[in-house]
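Consider this record:
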Amino acid sequence: MQCPFCRAMETRVVDSRLAAGGTSVWRRRACDACQKRFTTYERVEHSLPTVVKKDGQREPFDRDKLLRSLRIACNKRPISADALEETASQLEREIGEAGDKEIASVIIGERVMARLKQLDGVAYVRFASVYKSFRDIDEFMSEMDDLLRSRGGRPA
């Protein structure tokens, strides 16, 4: 593994642990040349489908993009980085195990919203407001009413 600091190829594993519920391996590495330490993660690479966007464009599935979206929705919410990693891993695994060659971005968005609805209501509303492109406050309030009903609260 190449050192990210000095680019030397002589690095060694100092410590290894299972991470993300056993779906990846966390490794602490040390560079023999510059003596700096860094962390890597190793996980199984699923055969992931191509994402078909709303406008018909196709792009490879990007786990980092999914994780970025989750982080933005959960910004300043009491949700750990591990919970976000686990959510992204579960979604990636579901999508990969389906065995489809292509998947609509709409399906991914719906799955993300379902996970966020369980994880944190505020994060769900943040994601939904961007994903669903609410045109006005009435659409937003309708979504809030649905969220309250699904959680056993009372609608406005």
Strands lie at 11-19, 24-31, 37-43, 50-52, 58-60, 102-104.
